[in-house]
Design a protein that fits this description.
The structure is a single chain. By secondary structure, this protein is mainly α. Helix content is 75%, strand content 0%. It contains three helices and no strands. Helix 2 packs across helix 3. The chain is elongated.
Length: 56
């Protein structure tokens, strides 16, 4: 789901337009940023686990 949110070519949620505008970004930019914010930290958990296993 995070990849779908990050790489979508148009906003998935029309109700997001007003909220994004208040931050000075487009709805698509806001959606892509949110997808990356969800995706990157979750990926770091896997990186940390892999490093722990490699160190053991």
């Amino acid at each position: 789901m995070n990849a779908r949110v990050s790489f979508a070519r148009e906003p998935l949620y029309r109700s997001q337009v007003a909220g994004a505008a208040s931050w000075g970004v487009s709805a698509l930019e806001d959606q892509q940023l949110a997808g990356l914010i969800m995706w990157v930290p979750a990926g770091m958990i896997y990186v940390a686990a892999a490093l722990a296993i490699a160190a053991a």
